[in-house]
Amino acid sequence: MQSQQELVSILDAIEMGKYKSAYTMASKSIKKNKDSPVLKAMLAYASERTGRQKEALQLCSELLALRPPLVDDLSLQLLQQTLRYCRRGQDVVTLYANASQAMPYSLEYATHHFMSLVRVGDLKQQQMVALRMQKQFKENKYFFWAVTAIYLQGVNATPGAPNIFFPLAEKMLQKAVEEKRFTHFEEVYLYMLVLDSQKKYLACVKLLSSELATSLCKVESELKQLVLKYMHMAEQTDSVIELCREGLRETPDDWRVYVTYVEALYQYIVEQSDEPVSNAKDTQELKDARKFLADLQNSEPSSKGKGPFLGEMELLLKFEMVEELVGCLSQYFQKFGATISFFEDVKRYLAHVPAESREAFVAGLSQLAVQAESDEILAIRKRINLHKVKYCVTSFFSEKDTQKFIDELMVEYNAGLELGKDLKSTERQHGDDCVVIAALLLLDQFQSDRKNKHLLYHAILILETGLQKSVHNFQMKIMLIRLYAYLGVSQPVVTHSLSLDVKQVLLDTLTYIYGEDFEYYAPIDVAEQVAKKPLQIYTSNEKETPEMLIQAFKFSTYSKIPEFHRFQKRLSDSIQQAISKRQIANTNVILLSKGNKAKDLATYLQDLKSEDFNISDARIDALQDNRDLTVGISWKAGGKSFFEVYAGAEFPKSQNAWLRHYGALPVILKSWLAGTPVEPSLLAPFNGLTDEENLGLCLVRDLSSAVGASNADEPILSRLQTNLNSLNQRITNLDSFESSKQIYKYFEALVYARIASSLLPKKLGPGFIGKLEGILQQFMDYLMALHATVSEPSVEKMKQDWVYSEKLPLMVDDALVKNVLASVQSSRKSFLMSMVNHLG
Amino acid sequence: MSFLRRFTADDLFSFNNINLDPLTETYNISFYLGYLAQWPDYFVMAQSASEARMGYIMGKAEGDGELWHGHVAPEYRRMQLAKRLMDVLEHISDKMYNAYFVDLFVRESNSVAIGMYTQFGYSIYRTVLGYYSGSGDSENAYDMRKALPRDKLKKSIIPLKHPVKPEDLEW
């Protein structure tokens, strides 16, 4: 027997985080007490914490195999922790399934068993265990756990196939109502979800209007909203209209109710009567609706609120009464034109102002904008809103008009600066939007003159100037990041993206802004760091979200459990995660491809999990795109967002082909290392790819298709030489993302050829390396020649060449121009030198 | 123009324009989902007509005896919106949780927010020293409170004379 003192000492060491000491003590003790489960559990824990995972897992498996099973609390806890650290969730399930079976009256072990099933996402077993718990411990809570598990199985069921889960859950809940098991509104919410999933909207209304729901729901307004929602979905138009009116009389600023009201009216007047929408204007119902809204507009206190006015515009839009809509827009500007959210409020209606009357419309608003406001800030806000409207509805500005408009905007901006002298740094300057519109105007010009990169530099200078005065304006930062990226300038992309402070879940939704294709124009080590950063959030998702699901079960928050499941899946199947993993793998392969790192490359490829990269087309297609595109400004009526305008193409672009290519690549290299034939399915994504599109991948494909065959040297070398000659001719200076990308692609091809020379000795003869080195040297000479062309133009020359408006120099200072120039120059030089250093 | 609704886990993917604001902190997954798991109706999102997320407010009920209160963490910029969100949370603290008061923490330097909460009926109850401490910087917080109808004598808002340290906070 081990002494109690020994156990206490080991446990103390564990609790204090002295794992080495715990390991030493436990190893010593176990020699005297070979069969002690608690010692084994302690040793397993200490082993894992000191990096001896294999040893820990061996001990765990011995303890899991014990019969009768382990039932002491301390051993179970230690083992559970150890297994969780080792990511052996299924073994934790077995651990507590055994303990619970051995001690069926232990609520603690049964709960642990259930929660271990939540962690691994085994819904069927959750259902079984919860039902068993309900039977054993007679608590309603476990009944609802079981129903939740059934409901979630329904959510996960194959679409289109018969779904037995929802009807089963409904039947159980129906019975539970009769048996008076409901004690919390969250249980009613679960019932509502079950009905909703079967499109039983009327039943939802009935449930939510029942005494059960009203007695359990403590927030009356929430219940009302739910009733209205389902009534609308059930197309109970009469009642919806009535309920909306009632709701709006109480809270005339609830936008959602206006939308429902208008939709219900449309259903009632047009869809259910087969009347053309043009006839709707004269119907009594519409006249009543307009009168209702007019009354709301005139009643106190809603005359001060925007709701009834916007509600009217929504109604006019739906019923295609454009002429009156335009009139309402003008009135709305007069009344609310000085509010911050004015433009956001009316943007959706501005697109419907007829093209032929837009000029007159803007002229009309201009008259209203000059009317005096009570203070200067309100007046400037109103004028800026007018500028935004003008930009929004004007589909084309000539070069001259653009210049004139920018001049006006700059005057406005400077006036705003005067008023904002005392603003805190966390506040935006009043005229920030003028800077943004000015930049957008330049980008619109760029759209029709894509060779004129001066326009982009001009936009950058304006935005950088604005940012100096409004250091936290994230819209300016995002625009700058993309403009620099388009020009292939990496350093300011890093600086501005760091200042956005993208972290936690934002890493999934916003990384694309600076991370997409970053490796094509940044130094390799910097690109690797940027690619690695978002992975934190996926690790957090694996660790934290299951624990939060457990919390939701513990607090019986059934409405949140399906949400948390969806959240977990959205992150685990995130497209950004797939992109980042591939970027990291590729940059790692490149960084380890130097001759002196052959061993490291071999270890990296051996450890690489093929299943993370070699995923089916169906899985790629099903990846979740959580990237938030709404942060790209879209102020042009019916026009493109900023992202599309500067890029002249889709942004972020579809990555499906890229994901296939760069998912297959590391797995192919792994096969090269192992000397095994490359599976044809891995090469399938490369079919049809040409050397011009991606020389590196084509070389990898061709070298893989006949591993073992020889005499590939000459064709490979000849293709590398031909492409280098072509590159030499095509790109004589580095001036954009596109040129950087082409150079980088060629660099990649050389790297893969170099890896092939060491991993495929049978395929490539002994003379290959020597000849390859010759081409490498030529490429490095080419890079150095490009490096020499990257020189710093003078500030004066830049202003002369790049500045579009003569007014700009007054606003943009020379130091800023110099900084921008320096960052362009040094980014390009470091990109080129990074490749030279790597190959040298 | 906006409407208020329950905050959902999916909102974490679309609240970027709010969280990119320098005065809004972005926390880890457990923080948001923890609030949602325990106080689902105490976490409210304001969404605009164009579906943009405008602001949100998180709340929880905590404390013992007469210190039973609603604690809110508001994230928004516009005053009118702020008022609506705060009203909802105060209503929930009162009706649903039967709390004595509502409190919130604000940076000592954030005079804009302090002025706004004062207008909403909040007053500074105490200073919490070095409450906001990040990479190298440290700032005091004001713990601002507003009494709810249950605290008839408004005992909960009588200001403390001395500042407290974060470790002295009750919860």
TrEMBL record, chain A:
<dbReference type="Pfam" id="PF09797">
    <property type="entry name" value="NatB_MDM20"/>
</dbReference>
<dbReference type="InterPro" id="IPR011990">
    <property type="entry name" value="TPR-like_helical_dom_sf"/>
</dbReference>
<comment type="similarity">
    <text>Belongs to the MDM20/NAA25 family.</text>
</comment>
<dbReference type="GO" id="GO:0031416">
    <property type="term" value="C:NatB complex"/>
</dbReference>
<protein>
    <recommendedName>
        <fullName>N-terminal acetyltransferase B complex subunit MDM20 homolog</fullName>
    </recommendedName>
</protein>
<dbReference type="InterPro" id="IPR019183">
    <property type="entry name" value="NAA25_NatB_aux_su"/>
</dbReference>
Automatic annotation (TrEMBL), chain B:
<keyword id="KW-0808">Transferase</keyword>
<dbReference type="InterPro" id="IPR051646">
    <property type="entry name" value="NatB_acetyltransferase_subunit"/>
</dbReference>
<keyword id="KW-0012">Acyltransferase</keyword>
<feature type="domain" description="N-acetyltransferase">
    <location>
        <begin position="2"/>
        <end position="149"/>
    </location>
</feature>
<protein>
    <recommendedName>
        <fullName>N-acetyltransferase domain-containing protein</fullName>
    </recommendedName>
</protein>
<dbReference type="GO" id="GO:0004596">
    <property type="term" value="F:protein-N-terminal amino-acid acetyltransferase activity"/>
</dbReference>
<dbReference type="GO" id="GO:0031416">
    <property type="term" value="C:NatB complex"/>
</dbReference>
<dbReference type="Pfam" id="PF00583">
    <property type="entry name" value="Acetyltransf_1"/>
</dbReference>
<dbReference type="InterPro" id="IPR016181">
    <property type="entry name" value="Acyl_CoA_acyltransferase"/>
</dbReference>
<dbReference type="InterPro" id="IPR000182">
    <property type="entry name" value="GNAT_dom"/>
</dbReference>
